[in-house]
Structure formats: structure tokens, C-alpha cells
Amino acid sequence: MHQTLISSLISVYISCGCSNLASQLLKEIPCWDFDLISANVIIVAFMKIGESDIAKKVFDDMPIRDVVSWNSMIGGFVKNGRFEEALRVFQQMLSLNNEPDAFTFASLIKGCAQLGGRDHAQWIHALLIEKQIAINYILGSALIDMYSKCGRIETAKEIFETIQRNYVSVWNAMINGLAVHGLALDAIALFSRMVLEKVSPDCITFVGILTACSHCGLIELGRKYFDLMSSYAIQPQLEHYGAMVDLLGRAGHLDEAYAIVQEMSMEPNVVIWMAFLSACRTQKNSHMGEVAINKIETLKSGDYVLLSNIYCSANKWDSAERVRDTMKKNGVRKNSGKSWIEMAGVIHQFKAGDKSHLEREAIYKVLEGLIRRTKMEGFIPTKELVLMDVSDEEKEENLNYHSEKLALAYGILKSSPGTAIHITKNLRTCLDCHCWMKVVSKILYRVIVVRDRIRFHRFEGGVCTCGDYF
């Protein structure tokens, strides 16, 4: 069968949702001697459906590769959340003297943003300059986003001030960066400046502004900007409604948040109900939480977990157990929390109670020493956060070894006194870890920065930049 025909057939199978037929066809070909264009098409097709390993096998067997081949692998790994592999492919690309282009860097910058790797970010940016790649509005926006997500908001601001700002995406990147750092008033000031410079905001701009208001509990300003969208002929989308539900719900205005959901101009989706359900958990309102659950047609892991947590918070252990039984019956697993820290350009990842690290003994020794010192400072573990009907001792042990605490212990073990420690977590940080980090920052005179799924927390001298509003 002709190579072009095979690659076209694989693409058709994948676009029609028949990925199993595409994989089977590839297996039945006696020799993967595809020409350059056909191989590139196949790589893109398999990356699109998340079959990164099949794409990599095709890539590894290619006798000749061009920049499209490398970009397809790097971009594909980034899209599938395999950021470290994307960086490894890029390093291989450089070692074989293949020249990257603007598309290569756009993918890498996006990967570094998600990974939160400060050293990698700086290295990629330096290479971008060395290779004399012109920084257009796409790369400029990506750099602002990357540095914001790596915790270097001042660097993001510097880049913003030095590039062309004709495009709304550049402003959006900066506004969203300020939002995740809890700098709501700065984001609002930037919005005003944007209007003065005659750049029209779009729907993404307002998502950033509403998110900023939500992180700081600025209810009146949130309402103002939600209403202002109509002045720019922007109809509220699901993301705007979700931000308003989050803003009002977290501030305790559950009734108003529920009213917004009911009055929406479109059918609320799972994300809207998840935002409302999360607010119900924060407010420990199991009745309203059940209302949200009943509205969600297709339950996902987070929905079950949130409702179970609401019941546990109210000590309704039987109801919580019923929800967990439903999870098991439906084969739903809770997303496991993990935290990572970059030390000397290497990413170290931890899960709760993790003992897989080569230096685990030293890490646990540092952590246990910190636990003793924080207790001496008067820290009391928030045992009610352990949503299990177990003894206080077991609850405390569960809290002691959360992933971000292990990452922090490793950071302290491997860094010089006085240097800042940067940690990234895939889920929201819990109240116990948040309170504990504040005490550690005080007793060690350290700056500790934690980027969780929602926002940045910068701990210094016993306080956090979020003002304990998260």
C-alpha cells in the first residue's frame, strides 16, 4: 500500500474516532519506511489522540527528519502533558544540530509554563535570544504567561513593557498573570491602561479580570466588570459565569451564585456546577451540594470527591461512604495530589507519603525536624481536614506527609539558607499545609512560593500574599 495512502487512511481513522483501527493498520505494515511527509502526518495524527508512544516509535524509526518532525513531537508531548519528554526531545534536537524555529519555542515556552520550571524557562528564553528568533505577539504572550506561571511576575512585567502591545493576547497574558498572583488591583489598573491605549478587550480579558476579583473576594468589582462586558458587545460565556459563581460562592453568597446559574443564557455545564459544588464545600453546605450533584449528568472524579468531602466536613460518615461506594462501582478514581520542585535544572516529583526518592531518609529527617519545630511555635494540625473516620493520631500522620511538605523538605535539604523555595502542585493546597508553610517561612526566615492549581501563594515572615483567602 502506498505510503501517502496509508498515512491518509490513518488520519481518517483517527478523525472518525477509530484510533484502534489506525493502530492496527500501523502494526500490520511490515516495514515503517514512510517518506518524510507521510511520517509527519502520522505523528501529528497519533499525538492528537494522546497516543504519544506510538508517535514516538514512528519518529524514532524515521531515517530523515525536518523541523516539522521535531516540532510535531515537542508540541505533541506538551499538548499531552508530558513536558519533561518534550524538553528531552528538544535537547536531542539541539545535539543533532537541528535548528529550532519560532514554532519550536512556542511549544517549549508553553511546556515550561505548565511545568513551572524556573531554570528551564530562563534557559529556553536565553536560547530564543541566541537563535535570534523574532519575538512576535504570539511568542511575547507566551513568554509573559511562562514567567508568570514560573512565579517571576516581575520578569513577566518587564517583557510586557518591552514588546509591541497592539494585540489583545499580550494584554490578556499579563492580566491573567497578575490574577494568578492575587494582584487583582494591578490587573484592574492594567485593564484601564489597555482601554486608554485603544486596545479593545475580548472575552478572555474579562475571564482574567473576574478571576482576579475572585481570588481577592472583590465582589462589587466583579459584578461591575461582569456587567461591563455588554458595553463591548461581549456576551457572557460559560467561563464568565463560572468565575462569577466562584467569586460569589467563595465569599459565602451561595444563594446569589445559585441564582446566576439558574439565570444563565445557556445550559450550565459540569464546570459551572463544579465551581458551585466547590463553594458548597468551602461553606460546608451539604444540602446545596446535593442540588449541584443532582444537576450534573455525567459525574467525574472531582464531583464525587467534593460531595464526599462535604459530607465528611459535616461528620456525615455514612453519606460519605455511600458516595465512595458509588465511585468504586463506577470505576472512578480520585486524582492523586503531587508536587514538584526544580533543583539545579532537575524536576523532583513527590506524592503524599512518597518514599520513592533516592534521598528519602534525609528528606523525612528534615520534615520531621520541621514538624517538631512548628509545634514548638504553637502550630496545631487541622485534623478536621482529614476526611476519614479515624483517630486523631492517624489524622495527624496523614497531614504530616502531604506532597508539598515533602517537596519543601527536599528544597530545604538542597538549598542554601535564605534562598527562596519554589514548589508547584497539581491540586489546590489544603488549609493545613497553608498554615504550616506560614510558620515554616517565619522560623526559617525563608520565602516559600507554592503554585497550586488555582493561584500562587508567597509565604514570608509567617504571612501569605493570598491573605488566607483561597
From TrEMBL:
<dbReference type="Pfam" id="PF14432">
    <property type="entry name" value="DYW_deaminase"/>
</dbReference>
<dbReference type="GO" id="GO:0008270">
    <property type="term" value="F:zinc ion binding"/>
</dbReference>
<dbReference type="InterPro" id="IPR032867">
    <property type="entry name" value="DYW_dom"/>
</dbReference>
<dbReference type="InterPro" id="IPR046960">
    <property type="entry name" value="PPR_At4g14850-like_plant"/>
</dbReference>
<protein>
    <recommendedName>
        <fullName>DYW domain-containing protein</fullName>
    </recommendedName>
</protein>
<comment type="similarity">
    <text>Belongs to the PPR family. PCMP-H subfamily.</text>
</comment>
<keyword id="KW-0677">Repeat</keyword>
<dbReference type="InterPro" id="IPR011990">
    <property type="entry name" value="TPR-like_helical_dom_sf"/>
</dbReference>
<dbReference type="InterPro" id="IPR046848">
    <property type="entry name" value="E_motif"/>
</dbReference>
<dbReference type="Pfam" id="PF20431">
    <property type="entry name" value="E_motif"/>
</dbReference>
<dbReference type="Pfam" id="PF13041">
    <property type="entry name" value="PPR_2"/>
</dbReference>
<dbReference type="GO" id="GO:0009451">
    <property type="term" value="P:RNA modification"/>
</dbReference>
<dbReference type="InterPro" id="IPR002885">
    <property type="entry name" value="PPR_rpt"/>
</dbReference>
<feature type="repeat" description="PPR">
    <location>
        <begin position="66"/>
        <end position="100"/>
    </location>
</feature>
<feature type="domain" description="DYW">
    <location>
        <begin position="378"/>
        <end position="470"/>
    </location>
</feature>
<dbReference type="Pfam" id="PF01535">
    <property type="entry name" value="PPR"/>
</dbReference>
<dbReference type="GO" id="GO:0003723">
    <property type="term" value="F:RNA binding"/>
</dbReference>
<feature type="repeat" description="PPR">
    <location>
        <begin position="167"/>
        <end position="201"/>
    </location>
</feature>
